[in-house]
Design a protein that fits this description.
Elements lengths: L1 H84 L3 E6 L4 E4 L1 H7 L5 E3 H8 L5 H12 L6 E8 L5 E12 L5 E10 L1 H15 L9 H18 L3 E8 L2 H8 L1 H19 L4 E6 L2 E6 L5 H15 L3 E3 L2 E3 L3 E8 L6 H17 L5 E3 L2 H17 L8 E10 L5 E12 L3 E3 L5 H7 L1 H22 L6 E5 L2 H4 L4 H12 L6 E6 H5 L2 H14 L2 E7 L5 H5 L6 E4 L1 H5 L5 H16 L3 E5 L4 H9 L4 E3 L9 H10 L8 E2 L2 E2 L7
Parallel strand pairs: 12-13, 15-17, 17-18, 18-19, 19-20, 20-21, 21-22
Antiparallel strand pairs: 1-2, 1-6, 2-3, 4-5, 5-6, 7-9, 7-12, 8-9, 10-11, 14-15, 14-22, 15-16, 23-24
Helix pairs in contact: 7-8, 8-9, 12-13, 13-15, 15-17
Length: 649
């Protein structure tokens, strides 16, 4: 029993020991497992941390990738918008494959059906042949490093036909070996700009009316030719053309007719010398022909003859046929000058002498003409001293009533008593005085002196006589002309109705409306206005009714025609009748013989002036003459007759 108990206890103890051992083993195993699990847990935590870090890194990477893709998308969208919205055409040239990629705008601009163009075979065919060398030169300058950017303007074939102007710009990219691999740039359509530039250039270099070269272009062309002539010894000619009586055509028919006539003439001259030279409008009706290669005088003479014959052909304007002539002056280079100013001056001088010799001809400049120019220059210098040196003189020629023979007035005639030239008549210096502007001061002096003389005669009990004074166009165009006349009348005390201002048709035609306004203002004050040299211009009858005049002074040519008789004399009578119908007095100047006087009295001419009455006299001599011929004048013999006998009885 005890042994069994002990055995049981032993078994229990063994079991307990086994359980303890088991437990120890289990505990140790658990501890090892726990340690392993802890270790694994730590490793897992570490892995999780790494995974979390990698996840964050991936997330950030994805975000960056997203942002990059968005930027690429936005960039592509922006590029597309720029390409579509820009007026320029964009292009990229792959220089390795020689393929050119052009934007849609570029294809539209250039009319290209394909997206890629083979530059060698296609592109050069599109460029205007005249512009291709320029484009290639600009490209080579950029590729060789001479220019940082490529830029060239040229014409390129348009899909509508013809050509359009483009501005091509770009920049090249090089590889590591310095070889060009790619080039990108743009095309800009500059056709409209080029059109405007050409228009501006045309306005700057060509006459708006005739389309001829203007002064600027002529000057540049002649200067270039002269520079070349100094190198190769070539010769040429400058022809200065002035249309005879062109101003009278303008005055008679109007400026629009004159313009059309000038355009017609310009076209004919251009066609004549198209291959040989240039035609330019210098101003008004002055035309210059420049012939840069005239090696023989015979060649020049042939052209000059052609020009004269061409201008003499009838010209149709507004269904009206005009027959015109021209005066032409010629200067050759380098013989007559080595610069344009000298050549034109000498050609102008020759033209002026051609016109004075009877018009309808041409003259070549020579040394004698040069001497005349020098003399003219010297005369101008001396003319400027006339007032200061008191060299001007006034002569007075009486005017008598053709019906009664009584003295009605006198005309003040200007003379220049020069210590160098002697007594100079107006035709030799008046035009020069007008060119220099000296005529204004001279004219004012004449007006003052003539009015003072009139006042002197009145004070000497001769009564008031009409004082006739010639007025220059330059005087009349002065803004204060009316005020000057009023001032002289006030200072001298001459009643306005005894002052007569004589003007010519050419004076009126300069600023017609403005001049008429001034004359009307003087007429309202009582000043008489007389139209001098009536009948010498085309505009006489056309403008006669518009003029504020009281008298006509017939041109001396009509008085001379009285001796011829027939139709010529009848014209003089018709002029007198016409003037009377319009309520105008008629003054006949240049009356020299009894036949003329008799005819004028028969036709009831109002006033007579001329050598048959008296030559122009100095003031003192005129006073003596007036004292001797106060009533019915007499004493002068002409062809055995006393002209006073026509008034006796």
């Amino acid at each position: 029993m005890a042994n069994g108990f002990d055995f049981g206890i032993s078994v229990i103890i063994v079991l307990l020991i086994l359980i303890d051992v088991y437990l120890v083993v289990r505990i140790n195993k658990h501890k090892r497992t726990e340690a392993l699990l802890w270790q694994q847990s730590e490793e897992l935590k570490s892995a999780q941390s790494e995974l979390a870090a990698q996840e964050e890194e991936l997330r950030q990477g994805f975000h960056e990738l997203y942002l990059n893709e968005e930027k690429i998308r936005q960039h592509e969208e922006l590029s597309r918008l720029v390409a579509e919205g820009a007026n320029d055409a964009l292009w990229v040239w792959d220089m390795v494959t020689d393929a050119l990629v052009v934007s849609e705008r570029g294809r539209e601009l250039l009319g290209l059906p394909e997206h890629v163009v083979n530059t060698k075979e296609k592109w050069k065919q599109l460029i205007h042949p005249e512009d291709l060398p320029h484009m290639l030169d600009k490209l080579e300058e950029h590729l060789s490093g001479c220019n940082s950017f490529y830029g060239a303007e040229y014409r390129i074939a348009s899909p509508e036909g013809g050509y359009r102007w483009v501005l091509s710009r770009g920049k090249v990219m090089f590889d590591s070996q310095g070889q060009p691999v790619r080039m990108a740039g743009s095309y800009t359509d500059i056709t409209e700009r080029k059109y405007k530039e050409e228009k501006i250039k045309h306005m700057a270099y060509y006459d708006a009316l005739t389309g001829l070269a203007n002064r600027e272009l002529l000057t540049e062309t002649v200067n270039q030719a002269l520079a070349a002539a100094r190198q190769d010894g070539s010769q040429g000619a400058v022809l200065f053309i002035d249309i005879d009586n062109f101003k009278q055509i303008n005055d008679t028919y109007g400026h629009s007719w004159g313009d059309k006539l000038l355009v017609n003439i310009s076209g004919k001259l251009t066609a004549l010398v198209y291959e040989a030279g240039m035609v330019a409008r210098w101003g008004g009706d002055e035309i210059i022909i420049f012939l840069p290669k005239i090696n023989k005088t015979e060649e020049f003479a042939a052209y000059a003859d052609k020009i004269m014959r061409l201008l003499e052909k009838p010209i149709l304007v507004n269904e009206h046929v005009f027959y015109i002539t021209a005066s032409v002056g010629v200067a050759l280079y380098p013989m007559h000058g080595d610069n344009i100013d000298e050549l034109l001056r000498n050609a102008d001088t020759a033209m002026y002498l051609a016109k004075n010799s009877g018009k309808r001809t041409y003259m070549m400049f020579n040394k004698t003409m040069h001497e005349a120019v020098v003399e003219k220059t010297l005369m101008e210098a001396r003319l400027r001293r006339t007032l200061e040196q008191q060299e001007l003189r006034l002569l007075y020629q009486p005017q008598i009533n053709a019906n009664s023979g009584r003295v009605e007035g006198f005309e003040a005639l200007l003379r220049w008593e020069s210590p160098d030239y002697g007594l100079v008549a107006p035709p030799k210096f008046i035009s020069l005085a007008e060119e220099t502007g000296l005529i204004v001061e001279m004219g004012n002096w004449v007006l003052e002196q003539a009015c003072r003389f009139s006042r002197q005669l009145y004070a000497g009990s001769s009564g008031w006589l009409y004082t006739a004074v010639n007025i220059s166009v330059v005087q009349l165009m002065q803004e204060d002309f009316v005020e000057k006349v009023i001032s002289v009348l006030a200072e001298t005390g001459v009643p306005p109705q005894y002052l007569e201002l004589e003007i010519t048709e050419s004076v009126l035609m300069e600023r017609f409306e403005e001049n008429i306004r001034k004359l009307e203002a003087l007429r309202e004050l009582g000043v008489r206005i007389a139209l001098d040299d009536f009948g010498s211009g085309y505009s006489s009858l056309t403008y006669l009714k518009k003029l504020p005049i009281a008298a006509l002074k017939m041109d001396k040519a009509f008085v001379d025609d009285i001796a011829v008789g027939g139709v010529d004399a009848a014209i003089t009578g018709s002029i007198i009748e016409l003037a009377h119908q319009m309520g105008l007095q008629v003054v006949a100047e240049g009356v020299e013989n009894g036949d003329q006087l008799r005819y004028l009295r028969e036709k009831k001419c109002d006033i007579i002036q001329g050598y048959i009455i008296s030559r122009p006299l100095p003031p003192e001599a005129f006073i003596v003459w007036l004292q001797q011929h106060g009533g019915l004048l007499g004493g002068r013999q002409e062809e055995g007759h006393s002209w006073a006998t026509y008034y006796e009885g």
